[in-house]
Please model this.
Amino acid sequence: MRTLSIVLLLMITQLTARSQERIFLYASTEGIVHKGFDTTAPFIDYYPSKNPSASKTAVLICPGGGYSHLSWDKEGVLPARFFNENGIDAFVLWYRVNNTKGEGHRYPAQYNDATTAMRIIRSRAKQWGIDPEKLGIMGFSAGGHLASTVTTIQQKGRTDAADPLQRFDTRPSFSILMYPVITMDTSFAHRGSRDMLLGKTPDAALADALSTEKRISSTTPPVMLIHADDDKTVPPLNSVVFYEAMKKQGIKGSLLIFDHGGHGFGMAAADPVLGQWPKLCLQWMQRLGFQ
Model:
């Protein structure tokens, strides 16, 4: 009987894990997928919460991976489930990446994937019971850079656009950046992410334009940044310069720097101190009216 109960529990867990809806971002893979490199076309997995409200908050999650792979479960599925438990819908983004041979994708492929995802969610917000004015973005590490790019390089919707998706804007209502890559400045950039996104010898003007601490403006939404002081992979200065630039523009923001955690700590569920960040994140969202 005990064995049967365990088997049933595992079956229920597997069914729950598969209950999300998968939405591919593009109608055609022509010019999107590189044969021999990509294993799938870009998509979002939708994790709906059990919140019965018709005006829910939702978050698009960009996993990290240095723009060369995606830390899908640790920095995608687990955060999505946490948000679900707290009445927030979540979408995990499978965006295009690159490799050291340059066989994959550089900018703006990743940015296009993220902005297309934002537009798809807003276009179907009523169907899913989501308030389009409560759609945020979250990113970890290189995914944090992607999220910060969407946060600071915004596209307005055009009511006369032939493509219905282009009628929706891409500006997040709020942003959560976890140990993010921010700058492309070689003095404290994460060189691996920079190389995967831009190549080893990128155009200086493009590298400058994608140092997102330089893109903050009066339209930048509220941003929460979370980092560890002992992060040797992506120096916490990345979050600091972004936060300082926000303050100069009068943008609401919060910066948390833990004294430990290194890089890539994810949900940090086993750490009683570091593991507090998800709750603090929710409290921040609540204060802003996004929960």
Observations:
- Strands lie at 21-24, 43-47, 56-62, 89-94, 130-140, 175-178, 223-228, 253-258.
- The longest strand covers residues 130-140.
- Confidence is low (pLDDT under 50) at residues 1-18.
- The chain has one domain: 23-287.
